[in-house]
Amino acid sequence: MYKTVLVPIDMAHLAEGKANVTLAASYGAQGAKVILLNVVEDIPNWAAIDLPAGLLEKSVESIRAQLQEIAKASGCKMDVDVRTGHSYNTILEVAEESKADLIIIASHRPGLQDYFLGSTAAKVVRHANCSVLVVR
């Protein structure tokens, strides 16, 4: 059983994320810490100029509220973390900071671009210092 479980959730694939929350509760030891994480991709400066002021902050708060609802619906105490940055780097940073001993991450069917660049899940698997459960 794991003491700290990190569950990155992609809001575009919320159903998979909710299923992973259920898995996290079952893989965690009694009193385990479960962290729900969403990474909002940075908006390049050249693109941010044309966007309404405060859009990123509103997006972060909206996602935080959605994750808190998911955590509340699970019936378990879970921490919620929303950060900006590149997905796989940020997931690995949070895993290190929180001393996670398991990351539960969803995977999607790879497209052609994934064969050349690698998916976020594949990068997390290759570089994580803890166990990673990839759910397809």
UniProtKB/TrEMBL annotation:
Q: Which residues form the signal peptide?
A: none
Domain UspA positions: 1-136
Write down the InterPro entries for this protein, in alphabetical order. Rossmann-like_a/b/a_fold, Universal_stress_UspA, UspA
What is any Pfam family matched here? Usp
- Which PANTHER family does the protein's record reference? STRESS RESPONSE PROTEIN NHAX, UNIVERSAL STRESS PROTEIN UP12
Q: Which family does it belong to?
A: Belongs to the universal stress protein A family.
Q: What is this protein called?
A: Universal stress protein F
Q: What is the lineage of its organism?
A: Bacteria, Pseudomonadati, Pseudomonadota, Betaproteobacteria, Candidatus Accumulibacter
